[in-house]
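Entry 0007
Protein: Helix-turn-helix domain-containing protein
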Amino acid sequence: MTALLPGPGTTEGLLTVPQVMARLQLGRSAVYDLLRSRQLASITLGRARRIPAYALTDFIRTRLEQEAA
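Output (structure tokens):
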């Protein structure tokens, strides 16, 4: 999963919605639905929505665990 998230020491701690869209290969509406339902954590800086890289990792890990169960 190293292609999904930057490694330690990089400056990409916060991702934009388009970056998350590209990494999950989902459309804008689907990503905003995940944010709205709080399945994917985010913060708001002014009018900008940002997703912490660890939140995307946690989301993917949770989905994988659900699929395995």
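Curator remark: The two ends are 20 Å apart (CA to CA). The chain has a mean pLDDT of 88.
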